[in-house]
Amino acid sequence: MNLLECEPPIVIDTGSLNTRVGTGGYEKPEVTFLTSSLARPGTTPINHGIIQNWDDLTTIFRKIFTTDVKQETSSTPVVLTSTSNAPDSQRIKLAEIFFETYSTPFFAIENSCTLNLFGSDKKTGLFIEIGEGITDIAPFYEGFGLERGNICSKLAGLSVTKYLQKILHKNQKMYIDNIPSLREIKEQYCYAWSDQPPAAQEISTGRINLRLKDELAKCSDFLFHPHMFGAQAKGVHQMIYDSIMSVEAGMRGQLLNNIYIGGGATLMKGFKERLDIELKALLGETPFQVHVPEIFENTAWFGGSIFSSVDQFEKSAISGKEYLDEGASAAYRKHHKQFTQPPF
After folding, report:
1. In a domain, 329, yes or no
2. C-alpha to C-alpha distance for 113 and 99, rounded to whole angstroms
3. Which family does it belong to (predicted)?
4. Are residues 151 and 187 in the same domain?
5. Strands 125-130 and 135-141, how do they pair?
6. Alpha carbon of 44 to those of 50, 157, 181, 234: distances in Å?
7. Mean pLDDT, consecutive 10-residue segments, the chain of 344 residues?
8. Using CA atoms, how far apart are residues 251 and 63, in angstroms rounded to an integer?
């Protein structure tokens, strides 16, 4: 079966927090649900980009193909997002599931930063995806992935949520073990930068009632200066700087002027402004430009949607024939090929 004979591709973005599913070629996913909502109590399907429980993950895929996708799986190509720290063994097992369980005709696993490249319609830039469990940073130059500049860190959205938990325990003498409630406080009230002095706010979520002030600004500090709080990690701005400095000097100027941010943690109010301030402190008078994508939410899914609609998809995807000829190891070959050939 060739691609023209297939149903429209399905794009699946399964992260530590949310799973997004939709038809390729569209701006938004049709279905979004908590990844943990289908997990057994006490289990986490994905943690920091690594699959922890394959039974839970296959339950998610079963739900997608029996409830969300109204197409015959044997004629439906699939794009699945991944993180740069995912081991080859994980990619191989995912290929086995989709070909042997669902008989998909074409299957592609792509890094979220690579997909953000497609979503931005750019060939050169530094792409940062700050999700719930992982921060991925990847530079591209004229469509080539610059692998030595790739950085993957566990400093991400969940890190901020847990730090908020810690400072509330210290300042408010209240220990909140409900992570969804803490996440709600973080997303609705916390901010990374403001031109106004801190103001106290009355916060109510579920059974939790608080009056917060400085805590609303402090929790974002963990993303930029984690060492100040005892964490063995570099701040987001430092990782961006290190990534750009790791590539050839002649490429750095274009990368500095094409820094693209995405992922749920970047939705925090004032995030771009704070990142500008922190990068300015590192770079001095060296010019740079941080860009916010037009499709600000679901950036990796949207990039996958664009990717599934262009010629590169057929070149990057594993076909059913390739799987029959090579087995799931084709996933390894196709993944590593992206660093030696441009995606355009």
Report:
1. yes
2. 25
3. Belongs to the actin family.
4. yes
5. antiparallel
6. 10, 16, 18, 26
7. 91 94 95 93 89 95 93 95 91 94 95 87 92 94 91 95 92 87 90 86 83 89 93 95 97 96 90 97 97 81 93 91 86 61 48
8. 44
Alpha-carbon span 277 to 100, nearest angstrom: 50
Query: Is residue 343 in some structural domain?
Result: no
Alpha carbon separation from 4 to 139, 219, 337 (Å, rounded): 32, 49, 24
Closest C-alpha to 156, from 85, 61, 81: 85
User: Which residue, among 259, 251, 247, 249, has the nearest Cα to 288 in the 3D structure?
Assistant: 259
Residue 47 β-bridge partners? 50
Inter-residue contact 118 to 307 (CB < 8 Å): yes
Q: What's the mean per-residue pLDDT of the chain?
A: 90
Amino acid at the residue 165: Q
CA distance 234 to 325: 44
Per residue in 286-323, pLDDT tens? 999 999 887 767 889 999 999 999 988 988 899 999 99
The predicted-structure confidence for 118-150, as pLDDT tens digits, reads as follows 888 888 999 999 999 999 999 999 988 999 999
Place of tokens 């390894």: 332
Backbone phi and psi for residue 134, each to the nearest 5 degrees, phi listed first: -140, 140
CATH of the domain at 263: 3.30.420.40
Do 109 and 139 belong to one domain? no
Output the six-digit token pair for 92: 């191989």
Question: How many angstroms separate the CA atoms of 192 and 268, rounded?
Answer: 7
* Cβ–Cβ < 8 Å for 35, 18: yes
Question: CB under 8 Å to 61, separation ≥6 — which residues?
Answer: 12, 97, 98, 101, 102
Amino acid identity, position 221: D
Give domain status of residue 344, yes or no.
Answer: no
Separation of alpha carbons 303 and 301, rounded Å: 5
Q: Give the contacts of 324 (CB within 8 A, at least 6 positions apart).
A: none
> Residue 151 carries which side chain, given as an amino acid letter?
I
Owning domain of residue 59: 3-116+297-338
User: In sequence order, which residues have a C-beta less than 8 Å from that of residue 131 and are 6 or more positions away?
Assistant: 15, 16, 17, 83, 112, 156, 157, 263, 264, 265
